[in-house]
Design a protein that fits this description.
By secondary structure, the protein is mainly alpha-helical. The chain contains eleven helices and no strands. The radius of gyration is 18 Å and the shape is globular.
Length: 288
């Protein structure tokens, strides 16, 4: 019998998932920054490794709670994963993570409201403050991110936000995530063939880049997303969206430590505003 307090267990699941999300940004930037793999191949290996790992874990566990992902969830997973890699060719780790989870927050908030959730006053203040920080981050200026890369990362965030909301109550987290990755791999295969033919000299993969993509797919994506689906059972869409905005700080720290990326004043100010807004939003949910 499990005597773990449910709030503590839910918090541990959530924290593990958020660290995994940040690690994905760091691993992707590590792989793409030195040209050891291109974004198309990175996505293919990431999705493929996640599918194989999760399917093996699901089969080893045997029968469990019912629940398999449909093609819609698989498509949403792909809408997240491919623009994510393409955007990180031109974005620093922290900037990309801020853009990603800002879009995630907006998507999950809107879908949560559509499902009947109503944020309180402090939550609204937190949400508006976070959006303000993101607008400041991408506003024109010498240190503003590349517009195309920023748009791709925003699209990725929309895909991830919709995928997260679709995962609430979807059944066994491991089986659902394994099925989503397997179906996403099927959808991605023809896209990679076209990309290989269209890109000059074809797709590029070196051993170091392939290793980073496989770790991203098998561990921080596959297992990390299964943990996130389990954590979502204990979170509202609004709170899940707010908590995910802590990821950019973790990712930016990883970028500084592993990639020697600089923290620009714009990124620092935007990060402070966004994280402070998250605090208000979580406080508002707790008081409610």
């Amino acid at each position: 019998m499990d005597h773990t307090p449910r709030p503590l267990f839910a918090s541990a699941l959530t924290a593990a998932a958020l660290v995994a999300f940040a690690a994905n940004s760091v691993l992707c930037r590590l792989a793409l920054a030195d040209g050891s793999i291109d974004p198309w191949a990175f996505t293919g290996l990431r999705i493929g490794a996640g599918a194989v790992t999760l399917l093996l874990l699901a089969m080893r566990r045997g029968r469990g709670e019912a629940g398999w992902a449909d093609w819609r969830r698989a498509a949403l997973l792909l809408v997240y994963a491919l623009p994510f890699s393409l955007a990180y060719v031109a974005l620093d780790t922290g900037t990309g993570a801020l853009l990603l989870f800002g879009a995630v927050q907006a998507t999950m908030l809107l879908l949560g409201m559509r499902a009947g959730e109503r944020p309180g006053a402090l939550e609204w203040v937190g949400l508006l403050g976070a959006f303000g920080g993101l607008i400041y981050l991408v506003s024109p200026g010498l240190s503003a991110p590349d517009p195309l890369a920023a748009g791709l990362m925003a699209a990725s965030g929309i895909g991830w936000g919709a995928y997260s909301v679709a995962g609430k109550g979807a059944g066994d987290p491991l089986r659902v995530t394994a099925s989503a990755f397997a179906r996403a791999a099927v959808l991605l295969a023809p896209i990679l063939v076209i990309a290989h033919l269209a890109v000059q000299d074809g797709l590029h993969v070196e051993p170091s880049g392939a290793a980073l993509a496989v770790v991203s797919g098998a561990v921080t994506s596959g297992v990390g997303y299964a943990v996130w689906y389990a954590a979502l059972r204990h979170l509202t869409a609004t709170r899940a969206a707010l908590l995910q905005l802590s990821v950019p700080v973790i990712a930016a720290a990883g970028g500084v430590a592993l990639l020697a990326e600089a923290i620009t004043p714009r990124l620092a100010i935007a990060g402070i505003v966004i994280l402070g807004s998250i605090g208000l939003g979580v406080l508002g949910r707790a008081r409610a």
